[in-house]
Amino acid sequence: MLAISGWACSSSGANTGSGAATTAGVIPAVEAVQARYGSLPLVERFSGNVRAENQVPLYAQINAKVAEVLAENGDFVEKGQVLVRLDDETFQQQLTQAKAGLRINQARLRQAEAGLSQLQGEFNREQKLNEQSLSSEVRIEQLQAELISLEADVELAKAQVEQSEALVAEREESLSRTIIRAPISGTIGQRNVQIGMQASPNNPLFLIGDLDRLRIEIILTESMLNTISVGQRADILVPNGPDGTPQIIEATLSRISPFLNEVTRSTEAEIDLKDANGLLRPGMFIPVDVHFGDSQQATLIPTSALYTNPNTGTEGVYIAPNAGSEIPLTTQDESLSLPTGVQFVPVTVLARGRMEVGVTGIESGDWIISLGQDLLSEGREQARLKAVSWDHVTQLQSMQREDLLEQVMKEASEATTIQTETTE
Q1: SS3 label, residue 9
Q2: How many of the other CB atoms lie within 10 Å of CB of 140?
Q3: Which residues, at least 6 apart from 184, have a Cβ–Cβ distance to it below 8 Å?
Q4: Do residues 404 and 4 make contact, with C-beta atoms less than 8 angstroms apart?
Q5: Pairwise CA distance, residues 14 & 26, whole Å
Q6: pTM score, two decimals?
């Protein structure tokens, strides 16, 4: 029920009230809507967190000064496009030194291989001479030992070449990291990089994401998994559309994580939006209504019409049983009905929705007080009704408390003015 009371107006010129109302000297003005019959949409409201698809922070992978920034907030960039250049002088020098070391080790390898080849030839000749008894066994053994040593030198030189090649590759990789490219095609935001600053792997430079493909994340509790599933309708409520009025974007629940958080016992569901027409931005928190079925047929009343009697704790509604159907919808001329009797009727709630409640105890077509019940609870048995539409009640129920207070105060002022003019 709305927590803000309805407005009241004096009715010194009206003498048709009951004893209690006449004694009080005030017949309150309240808003009323007709109950209707139907099934109640079952809706669960969540707070959604808007994210861009592939939304990722972009970091430097090395420590270096920023030399050039090639992207601004709001820029659309293609995958692979250069965004930032870091100072690469030190990395160029390191690469030059690594390449020089590689050439030295390659020369040493060739030198060792040449010495090994020469000694291998000499060893082969000595073996032939030894077969003809023209060389000694001592000489053969000496050459064999020298061969083993030179083969070890060649292996060492090869290892040094491989080490130098790895160092060159590492230096080339470090040099390539001085150029930071877009990992995806998307829009740049949250630029934190400036020329001359020290970039590091710990400080994000940009946030990048695809604004044409958004993702809304909501949290589901363990109990909700029994009723909410993938494919159900989800209404994304945008508070301020292009013309300043609330907008609703219809979508469906795209996926639900099957793993529950071990601490909170909750999981995450996601809604994909391919085109939000610029109504949503990453980082927004917005209401999301997930529809998961309909209730049984019942008499429907606005949620705001429910009232709990503070003395007895009984839940019910105030109705105008003798109002009939002659009360016109007066959403434009703001006129009020003549004083009419009202009474409190207990009801049993069958199902609760976000904007409507299914109940028993009253009939479809009954005039239900939707705003101003607090004034009637003071023992008044009459009220002047302002008939309103369901759309009007729904709009009030969806308003923020501050906006609602402003609306109620405005209506109270207008009602008092009308009452004064009528009396005069």
Answers
A1: coil
A2: 15
A3: 54, 56, 79, 208, 209, 210
A4: yes
A5: 9
A6: 0.56
